[in-house]
Amino acid sequence: MERLSGTELLQEAGRLLAENKYKEAVKIFDILVEKLPDVPIPLLSRCTCLIQLEKYNEALKDGLKILELPNGPIDEDVANGCTTVHSVAYVRIAKCYKELGKTSDAESMIRKKNEIEQSIIRNMAKSSLVESLPPDEPSKSLAEKLRIQGNELYNHSKFKESAAIYSEALKNDPDNLLIHSNRAQALLQLGDLENALWHADTCIRLNPKWAKGYYRRGCILLEKKQYNQAIIALETASNFGSTDKELSKKLKIAKQFRKQQQTSENLSVKNEASNFINMSIIGALTIIGWIFE
């Protein structure tokens, strides 16, 4: 089993699940979780299998581990009313708590799941509104005025000054997607990659379906030479319909650098599974999403 590729492991897991052989499927996900500890899909799959086996304490541990990983989008067909990995995790955790007799904890998890989904709806509406504001709109907020001022500074290559203006804007509107995105770009130009990544990840947290957040994250990770993660982010941006003209170029560069890094001894199960999942979380879920129904 250890010698199977990532794709073969997932295919075998799918076959076992179709036959309701959850115990055997868990063994496969054990391998993938060990090889890919920072990827939520194997954990989420194993968590679901453990629930089917009524091993609620073990499933609960997996669910809580998922919440420690970065959130990301997920096909809504995977779990009704869930559009992010964390939302599904909260639902799975709630199921465990309920079966363990912890009703209040279960209800708390469902509330947190609902808060995530409601926040996404609010931020999608906010981002649409902000993007539609014309430059001379008299009713725009102070944060929006500062954003436009920061954009002007950035366009004149005054990256440090623009980053400072965006920071002031965020004090007035801390959940503004566009300002976080713009500050991430300014900090990227300044070489402040850690803080730039924080702003990109904040965009994703606020709206896991906004392509620009993933594009920003991908560009920053490319600069950090974290090519596998950069490819995941850039391909996710593409899946969400990013129209950025540089995306294809950045993705090609990331793949070229990743190929240069790979050597024969690195072609282990971990890399093969990573290459499969690097099609992006959405791509992987297309294949195994029905597991969570």
Spell out the key features of this protein.
15 helices; disordered C terminus; globular; mainly alpha; 293 residues; single chain
Structural features, described:
The radius of gyration is 21 Å and the shape is globular. It is mainly alpha-helical and 293 residues long. Helix 1 (6-18) packs antiparallel against helix 2 and helix 4 runs antiparallel to helix 5 (85-99). The chain is built from 15 helices and no strands. The protein is 72% helix and 0% strand. TPR repeats lie at residues 143-176. It comes from Ambispora leptoticha.
Offer a quick outline of the entry.
This protein has 293 residues and is an all-alpha fold. Helix content is 72%, strand content 0%.
Mean pLDDT: 79
Assembly type of the chains comes to single chain
Secondary-structure element sequence?
HHHHHHHHHHHHHHH
Q: How many distinct helices? A: 15
Main sheet characteristics: none
Principal-axis shape equals globular
Annotation, overall tally of beta strands: 0
Overall structural class, as computed from helix and strand content, comes to mainly alpha
**Strand residues, percent:** under 5%
- Give the proportion of residues in helices: over 70%
- CA(first)-CA(last) distance: 26 Å
**Radius of gyration over alpha carbons?**
21 Å
Question: What low-confidence regions span 5 or more consecutive residues with pLDDT below 50?
Answer: 128-133, 135-140, 264-293
Q: How are the SSEs placed, and which strands pair?
A:
Elements: H1 6-18, H2 22-35, H3 40-52, H4 56-68, H5 85-99, H6 103-132, H7 142-155, H8 159-172, H9 177-190, H10 193-206, H11 211-223, H12 227-239, H13 247-261, H14 269-277, H15 281-288
Helix pairs in contact: 1-2, 2-3, 3-4, 3-5, 4-5, 5-6, 7-8, 7-9, 8-9, 9-10, 9-11, 10-11, 11-12, 11-13, 12-13
